[in-house]
Every structure is written in structure tokens, then in C-alpha cells.
């Protein structure tokens, strides 16, 4: 089945979808994105993603091209046309294609570029990696200072994943001034006893939609939550570690820079949070 994608008001077979070479997303990474998961053919936390998208656009003074209801309609249409049961919807909005290259923002009337496509991932909820856990390495965080804006400027995170692969690991945690900021494409956590520790919100990290949900569920399940920075050494000595993101949900981390975390197996807290997150998300999906 040929994938149907959405580009600037049209549903097209993927090979017919085109964006201008002058698009600011292409020339300057001048765009933002969102990834929303699909379970059972329904969208997980669409409202959270739509809110963060609006904030990213507003922080960059990119015009919001349509209302949330219209965005939701496109997400649903793509899920239906591509028969997605489990997977993701990728959405990208750029400042548009003014017809030339210039550092100055284009005129007001330039239409933002809007692209959405589906990624089918059967078995997303039953990920084998969740049963064994993943290994991470640490790398310096050399990204820009507004990581709370979800821009398509993903070169360094992409390089970080490659550094992890080269080291025989699965992902990298980024470290700034001695403390972990976040993973290349996820938020980072450690567990000590009944307490979950994750970095506080600021411009230094992306405000994960999964993070917000998982912390809410953790508090509801009487776990303690501490929002503060932690070091790699503290993480290596913790009882458990894990990451969260829209596409991995809650994923246990069992090794950090070659040191085993806890028993070197996924721990009970990460396991429980993953179960709660998937169950509650399925219930609330739209
Ligand atoms: N941090 C970074 C740097 C990310 O790229 C992502 C995923 N896009 C996250 C955290 C997790 O955010 P979310 O839970 O909204 O997917």
C-alpha cells in the first residue's frame, strides 16, 4: 500500500508530495515538529501535542496555520487512509518558502508549510526493548539554549545516536555543567527507592508530553517525584533508570557508560509506570 501523506492542504501518495527548495525548514531548520503516537488506531494525548505545537510556533513567531480541530481532522484522516493501528504521526510546520534565501524572516503573508505523514509500527506497545532495557552513553550537550522549543534542528541529537551506536549502546544522555539534561530524543529519569527523579522544566530541556503524563500517574500511584538535576554518577548508583517519549512510552535503562544500573535488568518502577502509562493512554486516546 502506498503511503498517503498530507502537504499544504492536499492528501497525496508519498512520491507526489513536494516542498520547495526555498523552504525555510530545508535551508535553515526554521520549523517545528510533533510526533503523536497511535495505539488501537487512536491518538495518544493529541491535546498535549497540539498545545506544545502552538507554544513552539508562538516562541518562534511562526503563524499557526490552522485550528487544533482541523489538525486533529488531518491526523485522523491519515490514520484512516493508511490503516494505522500502532505507530506515529509526524507533523512539521515551517516558516514557509518565500522564493529565495534570506536571513530576514519572509513577509507576513508567506504561508507556513504544513506536512504530516504516518509511520506504521506494529507491536509498538509490546516493544522487545522494554523487556531487556536499553544501554546509554553520556555525551556533552552542545545544543542551543532553547531546547524547550521543538525545532527540526536535530543534527546533534542524530550525531549523538550515532556515537551511541558506535559505542555499542542504544542512545545517549546529554550532560551540561555536570548534570544530565535529557536523552537525544527523550527525557531522562532515575529511581531511588520510591522516588522518581527527573530534571526540572526550563529552557534546557524539551517539556515532554509523555513526561507530564508519567509524572502525573506516578504521583497518583503514591510515588514521590523530585524535579531536579542529577549527575551520571548518581544515575549509575540509582536503583533504576528510564526514559520517556511519545514513541517509546516508558523505556528502562539498564546500563550507563558501561556501568550496570541496579540489577542490570528493567526494574519494577519503570515496568509499572510503563504499564500504567500505556493502559491510561489507551483509555484516553481519541
Ligand atoms: N526530549 C527531546 C530532546 C525529544 O526530542 C523528545 C521527543 N521528541 C522528548 C524529550 C520527549 O518528548 P515527548 O514525550 O513529548 O515525546
From TrEMBL:
It catalyses: L-isoleucine + 2-oxoglutarate = (S)-3-methyl-2-oxopentanoate + L-glutamate; L-valine + 2-oxoglutarate = 3-methyl-2-oxobutanoate + L-glutamate; L-leucine + 2-oxoglutarate = 4-methyl-2-oxopentanoate + L-glutamate. One of its GO terms (biological process) is amino acid biosynthetic process. It is an enzyme of class 2 (transferase). The keyword Amino-acid biosynthesis applies. Pfam families: Aminotran_4 (PF01063). InterPro entries: Aminotrans_IV, Aminotrans_IV_CS, Aminotransferase-like, BCAT-like_C, BCAT-like_N, Class-IV_PLP-Dep_Aminotrnsfr. GO terms for molecular function: branched-chain-amino-acid transaminase activity. Its EC number is 2.6.1.42. Its cofactor is pyridoxal 5'-phosphate. Belongs to the class-IV pyridoxal-phosphate-dependent aminotransferase family. Acts on leucine, isoleucine and valine. This is Probable branched-chain-amino-acid aminotransferase. It comes from Limimaricola litoreus.
Amino acid at each position: 500500500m502506498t503511503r498517503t501523506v498530507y502537504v499544504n492542504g492536499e492528501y497525496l501518495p508519498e512520491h507526489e508530495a513536494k516542498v520547495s527548495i526555498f523552504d525555510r525548514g530545508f535551508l535553515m531548520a526554521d520549523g517545528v515538529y510533533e510526533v503523536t503516537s497511535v495505539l488501537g488506531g487512536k491518538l495518544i494525548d493529541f491535546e498535549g501535542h497540539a498545545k506544545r505545537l502552538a507554544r513552539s510556533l508562538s516562541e518562534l513567531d511562526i503563524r499557526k496555520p490552522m485550528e487544533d480541530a482541523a489538525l486533529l481532522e488531518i491526523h485522523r484522516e491519515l490514520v484512516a487512509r493508511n490503516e494505522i493501528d500502532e505507530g506515529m504521526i509526524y507533523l512539521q510546520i515551517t516558516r514557509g518558502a518565500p522564493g529565495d534565501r534570506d536571513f530576514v524572516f519572509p513577509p507576513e503573508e508567506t504561508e507556513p508549510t504544513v506536512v504530516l505523514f504516518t509511520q506504521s509500527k506494529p507491536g509498538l506497545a509490546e516493544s522487545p526493548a522494554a523487556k531487556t532495557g536499553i544501554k546509554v552513553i553520556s555525551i556533552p550537550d552542545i545544543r542551543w539554549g532553547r531546547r524547550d522549543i521543538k525545532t527540526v534542528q536535530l543534527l546533534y541529537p542524530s550525531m549523538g545516536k550515532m556515537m551511541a551506536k558506535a559505542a555499542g549502546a542504544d542512545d545517549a544522555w546529554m550532560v551540561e555543567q555536570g548534570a544530565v539534561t535529557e536523552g537525544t530524543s527523550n527525557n531522562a529519569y532515575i529511581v531511588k527507592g520510591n522516588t522518581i527523579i527527573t530534571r526540572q522544566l526550563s529552557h534546557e530541556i524539551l517539556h515532554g508530553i509523555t513526561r507530564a503524563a508519567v509524572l502525573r500517574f506516578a504521583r497518583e500511584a503514591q510515588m514521590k517525584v523530585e524535579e531536579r538535576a542529577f549527575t551520571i554518577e548518581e544515575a549509575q548508583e540509582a536503583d533504576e533508570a528510564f526514559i520517556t517519549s511519545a514513541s517509546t512510552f516508558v523505556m528502562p535503562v539498564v546500563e550507563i557508560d558501561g556501568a550496570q544500573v541496579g540489577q542490570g535488568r528493567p526494574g519494577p518502577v519503570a515496568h509499572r509506570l510503563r504499564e500504567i502509562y500505556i493502559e491510561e493512554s489507551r483509555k484516553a486516546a481519541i
